Amino acid sequence: MRQVTLHIPDKKYQLFIDLAKSLDFVKKIEEEEKEELTKDQILAGLEQGIKEINLVKTGKLKARNARELIDEL
User: Fold this and answer.
1) pLDDT at residue 52, rounded to an integer
2) What is this structure's pTM?
3) Higher confidence at residue 10 or residue 1?
4) Residues 16, 22: contact at Cβ < 8 Å?
5) How far apart, in Å, are the Cα atoms of 51 and each of 3, 4, 44, 47, 56?
6) Mind listing the pLDDT tens digit for each residue in 25-68?
7) For residues 26 and 20, is the Cβ–Cβ distance under 8 A?
8) Strand, coil or helix: what is 60?
9) SS3 of 14, please?
10) Are 29 and 17 in contact (CB under 8 A)?
11) Contact criterion met (CB below 8 Å) for 61 and 55
12) What is the mean pLDDT of residues 12-34?
């Protein structure tokens, strides 16, 4: 069995889901909705990152290497 990931425009989404559900060979449909970040959320994240970089530069925050970050995930 194979799996396919599709990106469907919002206005065509329900039509596509209805069509896929009508096909007898489709076993399971998992719907996934992405949360889109607002401009303010993106800017807040960037601002937080810059603050953390400045704290590392001044020695007030200890930096982690990439391996530690990957291991944490």
Assistant:
1) 94
2) 0.47
3) 10
4) no
5) 42, 40, 11, 6, 9
6) 988 777 777 778 899 999 999 999 999 999 999 999 998 888 88
7) yes
8) coil
9) helix
10) yes
11) yes
12) 86
